[in-house]
Amino acid sequence: MSKKINRIMKIQFKAGQARPGPALAGAGIQMPQFCNQFNSATQDRLGETVPVVLTIYEDKSYEFELKTTPAAEMIKKACGIDKAASDSKVTVATLSADKLREIAEYKMPDLNAYDIEGAMKIIAGTARNMGVKVEGIDA
After folding, report:
1. What are the tens digits of pLDDT across the range 48-88?
2. Domains contained in the chain, CATH given
3. Alpha-carbon distances of 20 from 54, 61, 83, 91, rounded to whole Å
4. Is the pTM of this model over 0.70?
5. Rounded to whole angstroms, how far apart are CA atoms 80 and 84?
6. What CA–CA distance (Å, rounded) separates 139 from 132?
């Protein structure tokens, strides 16, 4: 018999830097235990923001699934910018097709795309909304 799910939370932490606090307060789990497990699982991704899906069961046990770094953060890093444009009509940087493919390949497990070309279109759309021009992709 499977455990009954009490709650599913989607939260983000910096890799290796999860701490007990408000983000986990309503979860009803052993926060230090989760933080230790999360931090050890993300040691190889230091400096990245790591989304996590936390499934909490009625008996206060939990499971968590790590996701890939958000596309917007990867685009900003690839372009060398700190902040995206507040208006998508303003161009703040240019993203090469090679970098676009690299980001799409990394994000593929978390995207709703059948192939790498579809994933590239999704990432290109995110980039355009951030004011980043994408080379080699038709707008």
Report:
1. 889 999 998 888 888 999 999 898 888 888 888 888 877 77
2. 5-66 (3.30.1550.10), 71-134 (1.10.10.250)
3. 14, 16, 28, 39
4. yes
5. 11
6. 12
